[in-house]
Design a protein that fits this description.
Layout (H helix, E strand, L loop, with lengths): L5 H6 L6 H7 L7 E3 L5 E3 L1 H6 L7 E7 L9 H14 L4 E5 L4 H4 L8 E2 L2 E4 L1 H5 L5 H21 L6 E6 L3 E3 L9 E3 L10 E3 L1 E3 L4 H8 L3 H10 L1 E5 L4 E3 H4 L2 H8 L6 E5 L4 E4 L14 H10 L2 E5 L4 H16 L5 E6 L1 H7 L12 H19 L5 E6 L6 H13 L3 E5 L1 H4 L5 H13 L14 H11 L5 E3 L2 H15 L4 E4 L19 E10 L4 E6 L18 E2 L5 E2 L3
Parallel strand pairs: 3-16, 3-17, 4-15, 4-16, 8-11, 17-18, 18-19, 20-22, 21-23
Antiparallel strand pairs: 1-2, 2-14, 5-6, 6-14, 7-12, 9-10, 12-13, 14-15, 22-23, 24-25
EC number: 6.3.4.3
InterPro entries: Formate_THF_ligase, Formate_THF_ligase_CS, P-loop_NTPase
Family: Belongs to the formate--tetrahydrofolate ligase family.
Length: about 550
């Protein structure tokens, strides 16, 4: 049996005017700033007006470590949100915006799939409302102002060897990872080494997603460290006097984007930091606003629970005063088989033994999530080739771990296929059993926080770092940054720093390559193994298949 592609399904959507979607949430038309007929930003004035409302229930969707077999975390987020609405709950979805780089590379978009999608799919996966362009422009403005300050006399006595502010572009471009800037003679400034990260790794992106309002945004931007003087004292963005102009560029980008699912249920799509190199969650503004205008809010954290969920708990919840009422852990039979050693080409054949073998990865994530004091439900994202025996093997394993697994067929059936999951998740969220707590306190040393994550979440035996890394952490503590949480930058494919090691490995080490202080965002980035903050394109990037057809419609997005 053949199935329609995601983009074919999205094109058939019976979308309603965005004003009708806003009306479901009680958002007056005058507080919707429309971008066409099917998307709009929500005004800051309206956001301020609902802060006294009752707070809804927060449901986090996360997943096992991603595999080429596919897990469907965003698809499950959308399907669960639709399912909650189908059973009569006032629910909405909060997800991240898609980065252009992965869209044209290997990962694809971020709008869900099948009959559990957010639309307009093409817009969301391309320019959308311009938020990422605004972030890139604000980041680039600061880059230009730093080099301009040095060119016109360097009043701040910046050591050009210690400019730590890198440039960004929202594309996978490995050639830009390490570059030389200001070449070409006196008129172009003082030559130095530089480099590019992808926009989603920008500290400006992280700040936009963690700031409470424009005033908080400007303060955080000003707090960013951009360089060091010869005496090693930090130079801040506010010293360059760039924070005000950057805030102006980000003024509209700070407002959450309202769109709809295929079933015309409301969704905020806002912000997009990667979870393997940043904190991987949608904006605090979107999540907290949603909690004031809906009874249930379903949000997601990027990649596997060892990255996105850990950062959601230890960074976003800590910073925003949030606490999840229920966590949904997404897994697939196909991914279990791949973790059990089955090649991708052989995943269509029933293999119950491989499912059982691969469940160790799932079990590790269940245990990790429970360590935060939150109730965990496993959503088995159904694929059409899954057999009853394989599904039962996953359910039995999850039961042995003290949790429960529910089969969900939202990809194929939309909300009709996710009602069982929705009923159970709502029941748990309403029960008040969650006893959420981060896994480390603020006053623990930075090195001990790193070790706590590596040993408790990754199950590593040790963390390896050069003396210069430890000295740098100690220096930041002496400067007053010791209370910040840790943002681990690590491969998403494994609990280790080796992307080929699947399952639930133990006895491994976590090598730290470098540490970066994101003083404005409010966390310390720890770069582990070979992870890159500027991805590259694969040998056959998706861009080769993306084009306009004879009717002027986009083909090839997924």
């Amino acid at each position: 049996m053949s199935y329609k592609s995601d983009i074919e399904i999205a094109r058939e959507a019976k979308k309603k005017p965005i004003q009708e979607i806003g009306d479901k949430l009680g958002i007056p038309t005058e507080h919707l700033l429309p971008y066409g007929h099917d998307k709009a930003k929500v005004s800051q004035e309206y956001i301020n007006s609902v802060q006294g409302n009752k707070t809804g229930k927060l449901i986090l969707v996360t997943a096992i470590n991603p595999t080429p077999a596919g897990e469907g975390k965003t698809t499950t987020t959308v399907g669960l949100g639709d399912g909650l609405n189908r059973i009569g709950k006032k629910a909405m979805i909060c997800i991240r915006e898609a980065s252009l780089g992965p869209n044209f590379g290997m990962k694809g978009g971020a709008a869900g799939g099948g009959y559990a999608q957010v639309v307009p799919m093409e817009d969301m996966n391309l320019h959308f409302t311009g938020d990422f362009h605004a972030i890139t422009s604000a980041h680039s403005l600061l880059s230009a102002m730093i080099d301009n300050h040095i060119y016109w006399g360097n009043e701040l006595d910046i050591d050009v060897r210690r400019v730590v502010w890198r440039r960004v572009v929202d594309m996978n471009d490995r050639a830009l990872r390490q570059i030389n800037v200001s070449l070409g003679g006196v008129a172009n400034g003082f030559p130095r080494e530089g480099g590019f990260d992808i926009t989603v790794a920008s500290e400006v992106m992280a700040i936009l997603c963690l700031a409470n309002n424009l005033k908080d945004l400007e303060k955080r931007l000003g707090d960013m460290i951009v360089a060091y003087r010869r005496d090693r004292s930090p130079v801040f963005c506010r010293d360059i006097q760039a924070a005000g102009a950057m805030t102006v560029l980000l003024k509209d980008a700070m407002q959450p984007n309202l769109v709809q699912t295929l079933e015309n249920n409301p969704a905020f799509v806002h912000g997009g930091p990667f979870a393997n190199i940043a904190h991987g969650c949608n904006s605090v503004t979107a999540t907290t606003t949603a909690l004031k205008i809906a009874d249930y809010v379903v949000t997601e954290a990027g990649f596997g629970a060892d990255l996105g969920a850990e950062k959601f708990m230890n960074i976003k919840c800590r910073k925003a005063g949030l606490a999840p009422d229920c966590v949904v852990l997404v897994a697939t039979v196909r991914a279990m088989k791949m973790n059990g050693g089955v090649a991708k080409a052989d995943l269509g054949a029933e293999n119950v033994d491989a499912v059982k073998e691969g469940c160790s990865n799932l079990g590790r994530h269940i245990g990790n999530l429970k360590s935060f004091g939150v109730p965990v439900v496993v959503a088995i994202n159904h694929f059409v080739n899954d057999t009853d025996a394989e599904v039962e093997a996953v359910k039995d394993y999850v039961k042995s771990q003290g949790s429960e697994a529910i089969l969900s067929r939202h990809w194929e059936l939309g909300s009709e296929g996710s009602t069982d999951l929705a009923k159970r998740v709502a029941e748990i969220a309403d029960s008040g059993v969650s006893q959420f707590s981060p896994i480390y306190p603020d006053d623990m040393s930075l090195w001990d926080k790193i070790n706590r994550i590596a040993k408790s979440i990754y199950r590593a035996d040790e963390v390896m770092a050069d003396k210069k890394v430890r000295d740098q952490l100690k220096q930041w503590e002496d400067q007053g940054y010791g209370n910040l949480p840790i943002c681990m930058a690590k491969t998403q494919y494994s609990f280790t720093t080796d992307p080929t090691r699947r399952g639930a490995p133990t006895g491994h080490s976590v090598p730290i390559r470098e540490v970066r202080l994101s003083a404005g965002a409010g966390f310390v980035v720890v770069v582990c193994g070979e992870i890159m903050t500027m991805p590259g394109l694969p040998s056959r990037p998706a861009a080769e298949s993306i084009h306009l057809n004879d009717d002027g419609m986009i083909e090839g997005l997924f």
